[in-house]
Every structure is written in C-alpha cells, then in structure tokens.
Amino acid sequence: MFNFGFTELIVLGTIALLVIGPKQLPQVAKAVAKLLKEVRSITSEVAGSLTDARHSIQNEVDQVKHRVEDAADFEAKVMDLINEKAKQSPEGVVAQNDAVPVEPPPKKKKNIDAHFDGDPGIKPHGLPEDEVDHSSDNPSEANTDKTEDGGKESTS
Fold first, then answer.
1. Alpha-carbon span 36 to 41, nearest angstrom
2. Per-residue confidence at 90, pLDDT binned at 50, 70, 90?
3. Averaged over 96-115, what is the pLDDT?
4. How far apart (Å, rounded) are the C-alpha atoms in residues 156 and 151?
5. What are the backbone angles phi and psi of residue 40, rounded to the nearest 5°?
6. 103 burial class (0-12, 13-18, 19+ CB within 10 angstroms)?
7. What is the mean pLDDT of residues 138-148?
8. For residues 125 and 103, what is the distance between their CA atoms, to the nearest angstrom?
9. CA 5, CA 59: separation in Å to the nearest integer?
10. CA distances from 101 to 80, 97, 98 (A)
11. With 0-12 CB in 10 A as exposed, 13-18 as middle and 19+ as buried, what is 16?
12. Could you tell me which residues come within 8 angstroms of residue 156 by beta carbon, excluding any fewer than 6 positions away?
C-alpha cells in the first residue's frame, strides 16, 4: 500500500518511540492497527458493492441485448411473412380483394355555367362552345364525338 521497506519501518518506529514515548506506544500501535483493519474492511466492502453493481448492470445489459435480438427475430419473421404474401399469385390477391365489395365514390357533376352565373353571353376562355359540357349526366357520353359514319369514337 505505502511500499515501505524494512529500513523505513525502523526509522518510523524510532521516531514514534521518541515522540509518543515507551508507555503509550503499544496503545497507539493497537489504535493504528484497528484503524487500518477498519479501512481495509471498508475498502473491501466498497469494492464488493461496486462489483455487485457492475454484475447487475451487466445482467441488465444482457437482458436488453436479448430483447433486442428477440425483436430483430420477430421483425425478420414479419418481413418473411410479408414477402411470402407479396410473392403470391395476383389471382389470389384479386380474389381476396373481391371478397369485400367496394362502392365507388359518387361522381360530381361539373356544370361550367354555374361559374358564370348562368349568363349565356359569357364563355370560358380557351374552350369552344361545342366542347363545353353543360348538362351531361353521364361523363362517358360527354367525352365522345360522332364520326362521319354515325358511330361513337372516344376522344381520350
């Protein structure tokens, strides 16, 4: 601890004998020995508690590592299931989607004259009068032109 050699101890004992005196030297030596014993027990107790704390922290770190590994394994399993479902045939996916009927959203009618307060004298810019749909309820009829032979042809 202090790295004293034999000669240093003899010098220290001689100084203590001269300062303390021969009558009180044994009592002082016992008190110093008791003090050193208490210091050693306290340091060993502190070292033990530090070791216990280190072990408990290491155990908690190990538990967290295991939880992270378990979460990573779970994520890998979920990703495998997702990839497996993604690789299924499109017919199976379509059949699953057809099982739940889906209604299309209601179509909104666009009446361009509503923007001009119904004034027939005002025409929107860039649209000839024959291309503006004023009252068609069916959008498929609004986007068709008649051909020369009388059939309908889609413009889109």
1. 9
2. low
3. 63
4. 16
5. -65, -40
6. exposed
7. 50
8. 36
9. 43
10. 29, 8, 6
11. middle
12. 143
- The per-residue DSSP string of 9-38 comes to HHHHHHHHHHHH-TTTHHHHHHHHHHHHHH
The span from the CA of 43 to the CA of 46, in Å, is 5
Element housing 152 (H / E): strand 152-154
pLDDT at 61: 96
* DSSP-assigned states of every residue in 91-131: HHHHHHHHTS--PPPPPPP--GGGGGTT-TT---TT--GGG
- Residue-wise pLDDT tens digits, 41-69: 999 999 999 999 999 999 999 999 999 99
Contact 107, 139 (CB under 8 A): yes
Provide the β-strand partners of residue 85: none
Task: Compute the CA torsion angle 39, 43, 45, 46 (nearest 10 deg).
Answer: 140
Largest pairwise CA distance in the chain: 140
Is the model's pTM score more than 0.70?
no
